[in-house]
Amino acid sequence: MPYRCRSLLLLACLMLTACVTPLQRDLDTTLNPAETAGVRWGLLVTDAQGHEIAAINPDQRFLPASNTKLFTTAAAFRWQEDLAAMLPRLATFVALEDVGETGAPTLVLHGRGDPHLTDTPDCETRCLATLADAVAAIGLTSITHVVGDDTWFPDERWSPGWSWDDMQTSYGTATSALTINDNTATLTVAPASEGAPADVTWAPGDAAYTIVNDTVTAEWPGQGDAAPEDDLIVSHLPGTAIVHVAGHVPPGSAPRAFHLGLDDPALTAATRLTALLQARGVTVEGPPMARHRPPGTPFDAAFTGLDDGDPPLAALAPPAFHEALTDISKDSQNLYAELMLRHLGHIDEDGAAEAGLARVDALLEEAGAAPNGHDLFDGSGMSVYNRVSPRTIVTLLTYAAAQDWGSAWKDTFPIGGVDGSLQRRFRGTILEGKIFAKTGTLKGTNALSGYMTTASGQTLTFAIIANERPLAVPSATPMMDAALVRIAEGN
Questions:
Q1: Coil, helix or strand at residue 271
Q2: Alpha-carbon distance 344 to 168, whole Å?
């Protein structure tokens, strides 16, 4: 190689070395310990002027997990006036329909996407019992059956890219305009006498599926000290009518609760209202039923109830959107995020998830995000098809901070070491109480995006995502948190 070429190559190497700052070297060491080899990192941190403080693959696309909720909630704040205008139409209500052969009418329970409808003993507002009391109070003694109507949204219970094993759990439960008790049923497994099947029971009113009990009360015959305390498996294949419980339950062990998702929340709500009416002396002649609207089918004005001028038999208060938005961000509530996405889709369309995602796309266009920086398939982050770049997230966060709704949006975020999904993180660090960010966790993925106040008092905007985490690495959050603390301490 000629001397001049060697000199230019050496100069280029020296220039590249000089560009690697101490912060970048520290981040590389912090984020890439040997035991986490294989993790793909995305990071972007900017200051108030938009200058980059740190960047790792900022324009690559990552699976964002629950960082997806940032887009859903930001869109809800952006169009909060439109959502507020819809509220009078969003109350859960009951109405009477056609009279059957016996002369008894059908009672229809209409859902309009209220996430907080319950029938728990401690319910104070938006209680199914309130509707049952109202029906009994008018002197109605007999009905043919109760219909749970969730046609306000199309029948899109799960979004594309949801894993079947997530769909059977409380955090992957079906989405419906008629929800009840967060669309969750609780199953308890407790030991019985040794050698006998364990006691497997539903919580009162929660008998959503037929139990197939293949358990035995006995120690798990595992491999010595390395064995878990049992091999208990609780599984429900979505769309089937059974829940299968199998494995060993150690004698004397504490009861364990399993929270399962519902396949048909509207039917469950109708079932629970039927029981409440029967307890109040109302005769219900037939079994509960559900009414759904197939995707692509327009909303049927014949069943609008509150919209056609005829007052309902009884109605509850409209949804509390701000409370729901706080739950979505602080506690990463998936069902509420999916409901909010569909409410966005009902502002001027039919309530489909696709219409809600169009609102998100419009918001990101307003914010100046790159067109190819995101592809979203749901509102919660459960879809493994979602892809977002760190730069797209930071662009949204920066844009929102300058809007009149930005401060209220930030107030819904978890606070490091204080509350929500960050309650146990950043304690004892410079970021305790000074980082406001949305978490994200999915198989092989950890994410955190938001705002943080540094040692100098300035506010930085950031997004950090770990993808392709090996199964041997339980979480990337320790490295993630350490990197953010390092950035806060140095700025």
A1: helix
A2: 26
